[in-house]
Each structure stands twice: as structure tokens, then as C-alpha cells.
Amino acid sequence: MSETNNGGMTININSPGNLIAQTITICGNVNLGGSLDTNGFSDDQVKRALEAVVGKGRVIDTKWKWVGAYWYLRWAANYPVDVKKFCEKIDGLQVHVAEGYECQYDNIRKQCTCSFISCDARQLDKVMVSRIDQDMFAQCREIVLKLAEELGKAYLPKVEIK
What we know:
This protein has helices at 43-53, 66-76, 83-93, 105-108, 134-152, and strands at 2-3, 9-13, 30-32. The chain starts with a strand and ends in a 10-residue tail after the last helix. Strands 1-2-3 form a three-stranded mixed beta sheet, with no helix packed on it. The chain is mainly alpha-helical. The longest helix has 19 residues, at 134-152. Strand 1 and strand 2 form a beta hairpin.
């Protein structure tokens, strides 16, 4: 726990598990995860998760499917809402993916206008989807779930086998 400039407290919970309390009163920021910069996920954690889901035979197997990563990361990791800035952020991470699977603005900008993109991707059960966007939502939902799973692994301790 650390004190913030505005007199509140920032609470970092850096491991999976349950927080059980009878009463909690918080007058400040709460950060679940390991980094205050990205609302819980470091750029390195995001990079590793993306490397696990992008490529041939993986959930992001075509360039336009980066829209699912855009949708999730803007909500779960506070990544840029502006699509061009999002792609620049991903490029800056230097994600190691096979050639032809890179995140590019021209490949996702049109899909980022779907009706559900403005809804919080972390609350899939509450997302209202237009008939026109149902197929796109199904694809993006799969990507969101896989990215959430991979980022969930970021909380697990690293084990090195020697």
C-alpha cells in the first residue's frame, strides 16, 4: 500500500486469490495488478500475452483480428482509444510475431467502429451487439477471452527449471 499525492491510498494486489473483507471503504485509487502505468498490466506482460495469441493457428491469425486485442487492451490495460495511437503503442512493444501478422492501422481502423467497441470488453455478458456486428463480436469475444487468460498468467509466479 502506498500513499498518493491526493491523500488517498493506492492498493496493489499482485497475486491471484480472494480478498475477503466485511467492510471496505476506499477513498483513493485501487489498482489490481502489477503496474500503475497500465491499470494492472505492464507493457512486458501485454507483450508476452500478445506473442502467445498472434500467429498462424492462434486466435489472432489474420491482421484484422487485432481489433479484438484493441478492444480488450483499451479497457483492461488502459491502452490508447485512438486506433492509430494504439497501433503505434503495439509497434513500440516490439511484439515478436511472424511476418504478416503485425498490428497495422489500415487493417483494423474500419472494424474499430463496430457498435460494441465502446462497451467495456471486461463485461462481455453486458455488451449489447447490433445484428450487423454479431459475427465480428463473436470473433472479438474469442480474442478477448484468450487475451484475458494469457494476461491472467502474468500474475502466476515464474518458475525456472534448471
